[in-house]
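Re-running the complex after MR caught last week's input typo. The corrected sequence lines follow. Everything else is unchanged.
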Amino acid sequence: MDTVHACFEEKIGEVLLPGDVFSFRLPESGDGSIKTGPGLRRNGEEVQVYKSGILRHKQPNMYWIDSQQRRVRVLDSHHVIGIVTAKSGDIFKVDVGGSEQASLSYLAFEGATKRNRPNVQVGDLVYGQFTIANKDMEPKLVCIDSCGRANGMGVFGADGLLFKLSLGLMRRLLAPQSEIAKDLEKIFPFELVVGMNGRVWSCENMTSQQRQTLFKRVAEGSL
Amino acid sequence: MRDTPLSNCERRFLLKAIEEKKRLDGRQTYDYRNIKISFGTDYGCCIVELGRTRVLGQVSCELVPPKDSRPTEGIMFFNLELSPMASPAFEPNRQSELLVMLNRQLERCLRNSKCIDTESLCVVSGEKVWQIRVDVHVLNHDGNLMDAASIAAISALSHFRRPDVAIQGRDITVFSPEERDPIPLSIYHMPICVSFAFFLQGSYLLVDPCEREERVKDGLLVIAMNKHREICSIQSSGGIMLLKDQVLRCSKIASVKVSEITELINKALENDRKIRKEGGKFGFAESMPKERITTLKRDEAPVEMTDVKETANEIVNRTETPTEAVSSPVLVAMGTAQVGEGIVNSWGLDEDEEDEPQTEDTKTDEVLVISDSEEEEVVILNEEAQKSTKPCKQK
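Corrected-run output:
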């Protein structure tokens, strides 16, 4: 079932199956290396596909397979939405959807000191990034970046709704030129927080009047 | 494993939506989710799907000595289990409050209402009676387990057939389903539970709450009723104060819902009975929808359409008419037939085997052995209608 392809470029945007093999072809420009992302594995002189999906390319030399899966693989510095489940001593226990709860220190917020504790209650939503996220250790979240600024992270969400999305849709929302976000902007004003664990929080500030008109338009199918 | 906790913003959102009479999935206040009832191949097995909540009910029976206090009555035994696959919050072998509550409500609904005639389950008074055991397993938890469990239990009981027995003096013969048709249980009425969830200190109510709504509820009212508008059991939990007219209103809503659901159950039972009688396929495999992924998808390609008619006519005139491809069926023996003659064995492995077909023309009374297995000879009965043909030697 192996098909040997001459080079990657022909297959960008096409569906590939596990077992397809590329022989190594160095591009003329660049430092002569190819970066393989998820779905591709290097095997000596060849690059093998081990997940079925569409081949994607990012300049200058990154290739990966876009596949559908339900299991989230979260790495360091991924931003996620977590729900605070417990306060114990100096840390908060946050549920991020994994088998273990992540720990979030109360000092990991912008402007937090021992005297000035952040106002976080059990059940609040936090947007943070991982400093430790591997399968052997307890995950650790922080709401602060390396310079000490919040940069959009922290406690949020007095109103609005938290819901789950498929990973593919979440990646499309997070893409830099996301068409979905642009289309939604035209319809109604909203705030959106997307976590890499598949959770999305959204809120809109419309009056009841505006909401009624929007529902009517949706019901007519004019959107 | 712990269930995902409910965040404060979700709770606020749900309560605000309920105040505005809106539900997450777009239902109205008194709407039920889609109910789907399907039966398995064995009698007494039933799966109920209430939206995404799935519950399996299985009925079985056994001959046991009766209770001392009631020697002429059969025994009913109910058991509900929360499978860990239903929700991450369910752990195996853990007696949670929910499990106890569901078990007790199911027992009260079905046992105390006397919906099954237990006297008819008696075989030999004081010695042998039927024990009917109803097991309900929760396969997926998306809210409102009580309703789904009661529908599954009563549907499975209505579908169940117990073996026939004959009593001669003190001897009991239990007939297997092949010897004598099994007998259905005698069911007087069908009690069905309807759940009402109350929010914000009893000011708002919802019928058939889904899992998210159940988490923010204040209290729950479960009314078990049958289609004759008789209330079999009422239970209120959560400690909320309900007014009399609220309870009356709930019972009115429940009677409407129960008659709809009873009709659905009867229709499902009728369908199953019809399919079994006609000999069609039944069981869970048939009730699952076939999901096919289309594998061939091509982009539109332009087709050259100039002089299509002329070239088509030319081709038609040039080719000959195809020969008649219909061959008359050939009877090898009564009850068998052969269409076409098959192709001569082209493997060319053994010399002697190729000579055999020619010599069999004259011997038409002989038994035609078609298989070359090493088992006993294949005997074709009723050889009168054999015609002389070249049998197809299959390898």
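None of the earlier attempt is carried over here. Confidence is low (pLDDT under 50) at residues 353-365, 387-395 of chain B. Residues 244-278 of chain B form the longest helix (35 residues).
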